[in-house]
Design goal:
This protein has about 525 residues and is of the alpha/beta class. Helices cover about 35% and strands about 20% of the residues. It binds flavin-adenine dinucleotide.
Length: about 525
Amino acid sequence: MEKKIQLSRNDIKSNYSGNDYYDLIIIGAGISGLSTALMWQKNTEGKKTLIIEKNNYPGGYCTAYKKGDYIFETTQLFPDIIEMMEYLGINIKLKRYENDFMRRIVVNGNEVAEYKIPAGVKNFTAYLKATFPQDADRIDSLINYQVSLFSQVRKLKVIPTLKDTLLTPLKAPRVIANLNRTFSGLLDKFKITNPRLREVMETFTSFSGVPSDRASGIYATGAMLSSMTRCFRPYGYFDEFPATMAKLFQDRGGEIKLNSLVEKIIAESGKVTGIKLSDNNIIKADTVITTTDPMVALRKLVGDEHLPSKYIERLKKIVMSTSSINIALGLDDKIDLAAMDLDYPYNVVSTGLGTSEKLFDGFLAGDNAFSDDCFHAAVICPSLTTGAKNTITIRCTPFAINSWMEWRNNDPEKYKAEKERWGDFFINIAEKYFVPGLSKHIVVKDIATPATYSRYSGSPTGSLYDMASIVTQFGPKRLPFKTPVENLYQPKFAHGLYGSMMNGVQMVDMLLDRKFNNGDSLFNPRSK
Ligand SMILES: Cc1cc2nc3c(=O)[nH]c(=O)nc-3n(C[C@H](O)[C@H](O)[C@H](O)COP(=O)(O)OP(=O)(O)OC[C@H]3O[C@@H](n4cnc5c(N)ncnc54)[C@H](O)[C@@H]3O)c2cc1C
């Protein structure tokens, strides 16, 4: 029997009491804002806390929506955030992907190679060694090194005392040694030169739209090990996750004001005093946390006049991450998706080595570099888990915002034509490599463009993953949580669901002088 269509996000209503002062205001009810709010609530008492969200639902990028008889979602993969969910009491039913983490197809001309990347580091290592026996020793050395590197990340303090800073080279020498190393630099270090093996390894950087010759080696290692160790998706739709968080926050005394755009972050004499909404209402606060696009938050909502010129120069140099085209398809019930071997967190197809670099260069040039000989796309099949009507999502990254917003606002015909063009392009790819006969079964088609992401998130670049996780913006080189405006914070440790929850952990730890997480870089609360 088909599942009932209902969205949890619609159950969350504003409960703003009309007060004009709060201890803490959080701008944005995405996963970063909601995690910060819940971690804060759990570790403080009697604080008046308000989340302000411009959309009429919580969740930001982590969401689901209805179109016709279908529910579509942004369909993120949940890396290992279980400990944090349990700590906060977020109880939603999750499906764990026990066997394979990814079905991966690489196309080199007429040659099509297929890999099933197993979950779990041991299984992955064994699989790689069996697939590339001539590289077995190098694979062992690389992965052992990566595991050790990641375990040293655990020893880092993100809120360090002087003693911590002095001890870091002793406790985490591999982290220090790799701070400026890219992921391809890491592969080079272990003499991984076999192009077929590199293609498989580079999967872990290209799914956040960054090529391995620019991605931080530490970051990619963390993403690889944390997502393949335990990865999940909800049995329900993706909006259930933020809706459950929002409900917990409200039940525990927090307030949420939906449908409310923050137009100004008010700074007086170098200190934050509150925010101004687009309806001109002012709400005061001792502390303000912004989880929105960092360029907008600082340069537009605060304003350059309140920022030191050095900081403005730093902001100007930041590379925001890429945007995407997402094609959500509702299919008829004649197609048997269950028979097509699609039940993986991601089914990924791309052309061979060098593809991510070319695509990223296209993005940096302000457009995209997709062609018949150069592509990368992920195909996800949510209905295999939700049990609802057949759906397929095709995710295509990287795209730049280019003229998408301009077309959407001023040239609807062109906007529609471009959407259809790219829709057809990627549907063909999905049909060829994963879903035979796909185009014959499409009932509803919904294409999200960089303009869609920009509108929903408030990021002018429609960036999916905040600041790009390139090596020059990693660790100490990333924008710090503390802004130049006193008591205004911007938790931007990392992107993704795991990264966004860690934003909350580290933010609250900073506000509470390490009394919550002991200044640690990973989740390690003092009291469970
Ligand atoms: C299609 C897609 C696929 C993804 N896939 C994955 C994946 O597989 N795995 C993974 O881990 N991550 C994935 N991500 C990334 C992940 O979803 C994001 O990193 C994460 O959800 C970001 O949360 P956030 O709270 O930091 O930001 P956002 O979700 O952008 O939330 C910010 C919130 O602030 C609000 N806001 C903005 N400006 C204002 C303002 N002026 N006033 C009031 N409110 C404002 C916005 O409306 C929004 O709700 C994906 C993202 C997308 C879009």
